Amino acid sequence: KNPASTAISAVANLAALDAGTQPLYDDGTNGDAVAGDHKFSYLLNVASAPGAYSVIVTASDAETRAASHTFTLQVVPPPVLYRPHDVQGVATISPLVGATVTVEGVVTGVRSNGVFIQTVAGEQDDQPATSEGLFIFTASEPDDAIVVGAVLRVTGNVVEYSGDGHGQTLTEVTNPSISVRGTSPVPLATPLTAAMLRPDGG
Q1: Are 11 and 22 in contact (CB under 8 A)?
Q2: For the stretch 31-69, what's the b/e string if a residue is b when 16 or more beta carbons lie within 10 angstroms of its beta carbon?
Q3: What is the average pLDDT value for the chain, to the nearest integer?
Q4: Residue 118 phi, psi dihedral angles, 5° rounding
Q5: Closest CA to 171 of 139, 143, 200, 131
């Protein structure tokens, strides 16, 4: 368009979901992952039964132009939600190895091929033998929205990666589908002591 659009806004008609008319956000709040990327979002707690629903979204700009489009939104039952300690288990091999899981945690570190997440503070279990951390293998650079402190919901496959040189495996989630659910303080680190370390790598 000429001139280019400015001050773009978007509104969704969510009457089919008993939610009325709802502004969508591009400011990093209300379920929007990245502010100012022209991707408008709204995090809605849906009480409607699973099924297909029509949602009308209208975008407008400061130049008084507007356009509407009807989308089909599919409501599905919520997944079983695991925490990192559920995936890790008490043994060296995950009790969920080979399964597809949905796990949620806060980002504690980002690498060129994946991201480390940890159970959100206050959601840890009371079992000292289970790790509260988990590596999500993305194979390539994670999205810019995936930063330390972001809470992620990840769906992927649980595998045991062998490659530490000591005969131990690393529990990972691979082939992930990742969504940013918000932010959370990063849990405090636990200092390691000599008594915790084993020279055999166990």
Answers
A1: yes
A2: ebbeeeeeebbbeeeeeeeeeebebebebbbeeeeeeee
A3: 91
A4: -140, 150
A5: 131
For residue 113 the two structure tokens come to 């091929």
pTM above 0.70, yes or no: no
Whether 123 shows a pLDDT value over 60: the answer reads yes
Closest CA to 135 of 64, 63, 87: 87
Q: What percent of the chain has pLDDT over 70?
A: 96
Cβ atoms within 10 A of the Cβ of 138, count? 22
Give the angle subtended at the CA of 43 by the CAs of 40 and 45, to the nearest 5°. 150
Where would I find the beta strands (DSSP E) of 50-190? 51-60, 66-75, 81-82, 100-111, 114-118, 133-137, 150-162, 169-183
Give the H or E element holding residue 88: helix 84-88
pLDDT at 202 over 60: no
Listed in sequence order, the residues at least 6 apart from 98 whose beta carbon sits closer than 8 Å to its beta carbon are 157, 158, 159
